[in-house]
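Bumping my old thread because nobody answered last time. Still need a sequence for this structure:
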């Protein structure tokens, strides 16, 4: 019996010394200590010993079992510690390392300009009124006093869907729809996409405008000047000056084109303003009596002021973009420069 125990002890010491993983250790432990393992097997052999020999042999086997159990426990603790240390090393996080910067998106320059204008006008009591992008001939042309033979109706300028429907060529039909549906007096701005068969460095087939309309009593061109002055100072800077030049639009009478002092040279003259010190940014005027009548209001009772401006053009001037297509090619290297 003692010889056998000596042999088993040597085996256990050797195996336990070699194992590097807790799982392997468990296998070894199972081999010697489980119900059918080598040490309980020794116990079973006690029966074959004489009565006198049994107590001493039982004691030796028991001591051997305790020794083996303690050895496995100690070894298990050691391996557990080692495994944990390895995990600490492997999964270590260097909290001093700079983090990966996630790139936040931002608004498109045209959206920035649109939002600035909406902010300025809603601050003056205007509401935002959006019209549809697919319009009919009446709202896009006829109601706006655009004669049947006006060149703007030409198939070369307008995307027609059928004889009556078209992609709106300006945001002015928003005026008509506002007058048809809102109770005067009111003040609206109507921003949105517009479409024309036009494509070069400063024109794209899709671009953006913002229309303004005020319907009230006894309005005059002087009231418009105050509004547009605010517009110019909002999008450019507070020292920007405006000037009116006489013009013609079928929907306004009198009509004006509005220039602002050049945002680049502030009036001194440069290549952007072609040496004049002024840049045209919008058209407007007193709403033509015919338009007021066409929209179902009494022109003897109500007067109107209207203006329309190109948001892309303003964005290009403001941010120094010389080709409108740069705004729409979706190149983040360009667009990310206009983060606010
Ligand atoms: N609709 C004109 C255009 O697309 C811009 C415009 C001019 C709008 C005068 C107006 C206005 O409301 O009064 O060029």
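Sorry it took so long. Here it is:
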């Amino acid at each position: 019996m003692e010889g056998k125990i000596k042999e088993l002890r040597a085996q256990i010491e050797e195996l336990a010394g070699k194992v590097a993983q807790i799982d392997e250790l468990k296998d070894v432990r199972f081999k010697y200590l489980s119900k059918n393992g080598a040490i309980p097997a020794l116990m079973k052999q006690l029966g074959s010993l004489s009565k006198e020999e049994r107590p001493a042999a039982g004691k030796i086997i028991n001591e051997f079992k305790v020794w083996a159990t303690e050895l496995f426990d100690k070894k298990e603790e050691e391996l557990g510690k080692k495994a944990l240390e390895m995990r600490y090393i492997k999964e270590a996080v260097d909290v001093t390392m700079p983090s990966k910067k996630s790139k936040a998106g931002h608004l498109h320059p045209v959206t920035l300009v649109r939002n600035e204008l909406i902010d300025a006008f809603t601050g003056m009591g205007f509401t935002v009124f959006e019209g549809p992008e697919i319009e009919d001939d009446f709202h896009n042309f006829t109601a706006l006093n655009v004669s049947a033979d006006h060149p703007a109706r030409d198939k070369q300028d307008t995307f027609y869907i059928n004889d009556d429907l078209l992609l709106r060529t300006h945001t002015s039909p928003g005026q008509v729809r506002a007058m048809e549906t809102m109770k005067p007096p009111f003040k609206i701005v109507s921003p949105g996409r517009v479409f024309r068969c036009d494509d070069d460095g400063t024109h794209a087939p899709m671009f953006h405008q913002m229309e303004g309309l005020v319907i009230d009593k006894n309005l005059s061109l002087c009231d418009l000047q105050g509004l547009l002055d605010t517009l110019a100072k909002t999008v450019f800077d507070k020292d920007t000056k405006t000037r009116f030049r006489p013009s013609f639009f079928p929907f306004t009478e009198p009509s004006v084109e509005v220039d602002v002092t050049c945002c680049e040279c502030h009036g001194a003259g440069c290549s952007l303003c072609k040496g004049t010190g002024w840049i045209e940014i919008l058209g407007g005027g007193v709403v033509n009596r015919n338009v007021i009548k066409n929209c179902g209001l009494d022109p003897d009772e109500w007067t109107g002021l209207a203006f329309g401006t190109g948001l892309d053009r303003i964005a290009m001037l403001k941010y120094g973009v010389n080709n409108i297509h740069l705004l729409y090619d979706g190149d983040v290297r360009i667009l990310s420069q206009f983060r606010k």
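Residues 120 and 234 are 7 Å apart (CA to CA). Let me know if any region looks off to you.
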